[in-house]
């Protein structure tokens, strides 16, 4: 408590201080400048900013030139670019996949009954009679005293697990985080944990509420190429195969063993539940083809004058989907809101730092990662190959999907309650006459789905916050309608266009000012934000 009081008074000090030029820099954050950035980055000329295309060339050059004109130095030695080597894998499953329960020989057809791929850089993957082990939710979470693998031997076997975490299904707030998804609920965690346990394969039982999307999402991504970072070990640290069982397939397989899937899920939500060997085997064969390619992260640094090796990072991914299927005569996925508006904010925050009369004590980095849309690949690569050590990285303040719908009363925090950045933000937001709002859709695990998460995973307290739900002028209902309209009609579609006649940048400006204020405070203090009790990342710091 004492530390927080100390912090509050410091924040007050910033707003009163005159000689640093903070106030002037804050007020100079400009909607015109932001419009200029979005109009270029989301133009048709940039072709939807897909990695490995002409759109990438134009985008990274633009970002570099803007960093130069702001006076930010190259982050990577003498370069503003960091090469991110990637490999694209297309998996073709030889049908059918066989699951033998001893009672029935189930012939499952990919991708409708089972959606599997192999993340290994191997041309042929042959799995013959791999034993199936049911491992509850596939979670080992010491802070919740939960271990689905306790007493189970899964090495060289295939685990079958439920999606999400037990908190969702019980609604019990003392179990994990209740209905809010923890990282343990994400499929990415389950794949990683299966590999750590030495499992050959993993199958997640699909269920729409827990996944947050229908079966056709994993179905479709199993038949389109998947992008990975090149690792040098040909992804030998991943399972041989990963994927999802449709709800119907799971029902058929478990009923052979006398289980009903819903009853089993209820059982698996009870502390102390023990998984079991299903006395069944899986056989499958996958042909992989791959191509290697290099994309680029872009970053610039404003060196701190007291502790230049400590850094505050502002991030916004530059990539989007490029050119795809035509919709209403348009085939360019311009990504104006995803993520043009955030890049514009990041530049204006950077400009505000350079407008102060003095450089900050700590360094400030503007970071534009690649391939966020393909699974945060650019930011995950960066956090494995950082310029500033992770334990010298004070925070990552990220954004994504910032809507141009005018000034908002709320600051929606995705991942609210994770760290005391929330408390700092709340204080700064109050000065703008705004209040913090926990993301109302926290059960979909959005905190794990943008670039700040790559930093969180390394123990760096990180923030994803923006005005989203409560327009100062039109109220809450209107705001929800605006968001829904964006999600339903423009999100990840060619219609995510820059529309200067209808867009209102005033709210984005206020979000930029808020992020600037928080970062300015941290950049001029020796304060380190902390994870809160119960955060799944606390142990990592
Ligand atoms: Zn995005």
Features:
Glucose Oxidase, domain 1, 20 strands, Aminopeptidase, 2 domains, alpha/beta, 16-stranded mixed beta sheet, 541 residues, two-stranded antiparallel sheet, binds zinc ion, disordered N terminus, 32% helix
Report on the architecture of this protein.
This protein has helices at 2-16, 22-27, 31-41, 54-70, 166-170, 187-196, 208-211, 216-223, 247-256, 261-268, 336-355, 377-384, 421-431, 452-456, 475-489, 506-523, and strands at 73-74, 81-100, 105-108, 114-117, 124-134, 140-141, 146-147, 158-162, 201-205, 226-229, 241-245, 276-302, 307-315, 322-327, 330-333, 362-368, 393-398, 410-413, 435-438, 462-466. The chain contains 16 helices and 20 strands. The protein has a 16-stranded mixed beta sheet that branches. Strands 6-7 form a two-stranded antiparallel ribbon. A two-stranded antiparallel sheet has the order 14-15. The chain folds into two domains: 2-86 and 292-540, Aminopeptidase (3-Layer(aba) Sandwich); 87-289, 3-Layer(bba) Sandwich (Glucose Oxidase, domain 1). α3 crosses α11, α11 crosses α16 and α13 (421-431) crosses α16. Bound molecules: zinc ion. Zinc ion binds next to α11.
């Amino acid at each position: 408590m004492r530390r927080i009081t100390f912090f509050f008074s410091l924040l007050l000090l910033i707003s009163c201080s005159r000689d640093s030029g903070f106030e002037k820099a804050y007020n100079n954050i400009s909607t015109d400048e932001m419009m200029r950035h979005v109009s270029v980055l989301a133009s048709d000329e940039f072709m939807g900013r897909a990695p490995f295309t002409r759109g990438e060339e134009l985008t990274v050059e633009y970002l570099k030139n803007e960093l130069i004109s702001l006076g930010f130095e190259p982050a990577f030695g003498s370069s503003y670019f960091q090469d991110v080597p990637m490999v694209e894998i297309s998996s073709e499953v030889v049908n059918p996949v066989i699951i033998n329960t001893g009672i029935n020989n189930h012939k499952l057809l990919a991708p409708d009954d089972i959606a599997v791929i192999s993340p290994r850089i191997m041309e042929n993957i042959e799995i013959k009679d791999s034993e199936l082990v049911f491992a509850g939710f596939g979670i080992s979470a010491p802070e919740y005293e939960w271990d689905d693998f306790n007493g189970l031997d899964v090495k060289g076997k295939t685990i079958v697990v439920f999606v999400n975490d037990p908190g969702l299904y019980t609604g019990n707030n003392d179990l994990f985080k209740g209905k809010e998804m923890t990282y343990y609920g994400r499929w990415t965690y389950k794949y990683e944990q299966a590999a750590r346990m030495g499992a050959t394969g993993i199958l997640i039982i699909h269920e729409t509420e827990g996944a947050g999307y229908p079966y056709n999402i994993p179905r479709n991504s199993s038949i389109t190429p998947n992008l990975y970072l090149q690792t040098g070990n040909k992804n030998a640290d991943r399972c041989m195969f990963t994927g999802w069982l449709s709800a119907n397939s799971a029902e058929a397989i478990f009923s052979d063993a006398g289980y009903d899937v819903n009853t089993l899920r209820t059982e698996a939500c009870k502390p102390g539940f023990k998984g079991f060997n299903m006395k069944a085997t899986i056989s499958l064969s996958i042909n992989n083809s791959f191509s290697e390619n290099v994309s680029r992260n872009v970053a610039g640094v404003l060196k701190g004058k007291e502790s230049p090796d400590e850094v505050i990072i502002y991030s916004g991914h530059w990539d989007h989907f490029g050119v795809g299927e035509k919709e209403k005569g348009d085939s360019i996925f311009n990504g104006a809101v995803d993520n043009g508006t955030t890049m514009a904010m990041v530049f204006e925050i950077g400009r505000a730092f350079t407008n102060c009369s003095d450089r900050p004590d700590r360094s400030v980095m503007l970071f534009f990662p690649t391939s966020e849309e393909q699974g945060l690949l650019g930011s995950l690569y960066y956090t494995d190959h950082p310029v500033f050590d992770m334990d010298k990285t004070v925070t990552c303040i990220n954004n994504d999907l910032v809507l141009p719908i005018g000034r908002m009363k709320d600051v929606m925090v995705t991942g609210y309650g994770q760290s005391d950045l929330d408390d700092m933000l709340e204080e700064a937001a109050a000065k703008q006459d705004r209040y913090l709002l926990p993301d109302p859709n926290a059960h979909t695990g959005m905190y794990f789905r943008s670039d700040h998460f790559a930093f969180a995973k390394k123990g760096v307290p990180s923030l994803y916050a923006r005005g989203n739900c409560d327009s100062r002028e039109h109220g809450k209902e209107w705001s929800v309608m605006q968001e829904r309209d964006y999600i339903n009609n423009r999100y990840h579609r060619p219609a995510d266009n820059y529309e200067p006649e209808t867009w209102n940048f005033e709210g984005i400006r206020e979000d930029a000012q808020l992020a600037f204020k928080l970062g300015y405070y941290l950049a001029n203090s020796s304060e380190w934000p902390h994870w809160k009790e119960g955060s799944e990342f606390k142990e990592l710091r």
